[in-house]
Amino acid sequence: MIRSEILKEIAPILRDQLVVCNIGIPSQELHAIDDQPTNFYMLGTMGLASSIGLGLALAQPKPVIVIDGDGSVLTNLGTLPTIGNNAPGNYILMIVDNGSYGSTGDQPTYTGRKTDLAGMARAAGCDTVVEVRDVDTGPALQAAIDSGKATVLVVKCDSGNAKMPVITMDPVVIRDRFMRAVAS
Amino acid sequence: MNIDKKIADDLVANDIRFVTTVPCKQLAGVIEEVEARDDIFHIPSNKEDEGMGLCAGAWMGGTRPAIIMQNTALGVTINTLATLIQFYRMPLPMIISYRGELREPVACQVEMAVHTKALLAQLNIPTYHFHWQKDVEEFDNILKYTFMCNKPVAILTDANFWGGYGDQ
Known about the structure:
The complex is a heterodimer of chains A (about 180) and B (about 170). Chain A is of the alpha/beta class and about 180 residues long. Chain A has one domain (about 5-184): Thiamin diphosphate (ThDP)-binding fold, Pyr/PP domains (Rossmann fold). In chain A, about 40% of the residues lie in helices and about 20% in strands. Chain A is built from eight helices and eight strands, in the order αβαβαβααβββαβαβα. Chain A has a six-stranded parallel beta sheet with strand order 2-1-3-4-8-7, sandwiched between helices. Chain A has a two-stranded antiparallel ribbon with strand order 5-6. In chain A, a hairpin with a 5-residue loop joins strand 5 and strand 6 (about 105-110). In chain A, helix 1 crosses helix 2 and helix 1 packs parallel to helix 7 (about 135-145). In chain B, strands 2-1-3-4-6-5 form a six-stranded parallel beta sheet, sandwiched between helices. Chain B has one domain (about 5-160): Rossmann fold (3-Layer(aba) Sandwich), CATH 3.40.50.970. Chain B has helices at about 5-15, 30-35, 50-60, 75-85, 105-120, 140-150; strands spanning about 15-20, 40-45, 65-70, 90-100, 125-130, 150-160. In chain B, helix 4 (about 75-85) links the parallel strand 3 and strand 4. The two termini of chain B are about 20 Å apart. Chain B is about 45% helix and about 20% strand. In chain B, helix 1 packs across helix 2 (about 30-35) and helix 3 packs parallel to helix 4. Chain B has about 170 residues and is α/β, with parallel strands linked by helices. The chains are: A alpha/beta (about 180), B alpha/beta (about 170). The interface of A and B includes residues 52 and 175 of A.
């Protein structure tokens, strides 16, 4: 499965949750598949989805699901120790690990070679790290939500992108409707 | 006056309850003060752009944030300031240790100091420079201004403000 197929499959689970979605094609795909006020789309700032989600989870009690990528996590590796030492039970970091930089033309990342993100997360202090194949994403994500434990979910899948339109919504609109959804 | 305590007091008085820090020797006292406060959640970050991401999330979650960092890291935060904090119109007080200014003993620090105000000006970030201890009296107003206008605002605090660095 490629990322967009996974997102389609888990859209019913994501729909009622606060979601912080990674820059580029992941946000475009989520926006096209199931736009919700509870989705925060990153339009720039590669690497910070996990950090934004962590700040959000620490500031309020609702579950927060971060949809991140292997390339973006590699860009901001310092995030893993911060998560490992601080993440509350309402925090789920789902890393769609397709071994490539999808938004820039599927150039390979090091996770397609020797680098093991799940192992790095564990070494950084993350207590609950789950690694699954693409087809098992839905049940694993639901289990993470139900567990009430901070979870890093590494989803191994195929490289590839769906052709989706660029998000043209104004960033302040995205942010404002998201904040209203958070507060509701 | 204990400026570390005054800064922490003003943060709390302005309902700032989420503070991320990347250390600097000059900032050691205020970081210690922030860590000691029960009414502030202190979360050290490993890099300043990561810290700004944490602050953005905290603010969207309803908690006012601040970042405490060193000016030498300003370069690594430019993209985050432009494409996250400014693009989405978020408030962010940046309490910045202004290394490389008067009374600085380390020459290399001056190399970023000469770019600091220019970079902040290029980004149209309101910038205040604390040089004398009495300048801290403005801090409360600066925090109110930051959350009034929903912008990142820089407070540069030099070695003279902190009472010298390495020379006393």
